[in-house]
Amino acid sequence: MAAIPGSHYLEQIEGLALYLKMAGLALRRPRTVPYLLQAAWAFRSRDWYRRPPFLPLPPASYMKWRMETAYGDPDAVPTDDELERYLLWTARMRSQMKQRDSG
Question: In terms of Cα–Cα distance, which of 55, 59, 58, 46 is closest to 7?
């Protein structure tokens, strides 16, 4: 089955509510910006620079799967507190993995 031209871009727009939530979190809680950037980079799509919107964002399918497994709804949008806790947790886990690998 052939892919629909631009379908990847449409998938990204479907997850727009979650991305807007993340942008809002960054504005309301600037201390989360480094964690948001780390998470975006860690979970970025392969070849993100070749497709619009040309941002290192996680694939929409991954984000839907994460929301489905966490909330039982692929279109769920976490609260600011939940999102911040997740971002801090992933940063701690990445830090611990680096320490373990270098030690």
Answer: 59
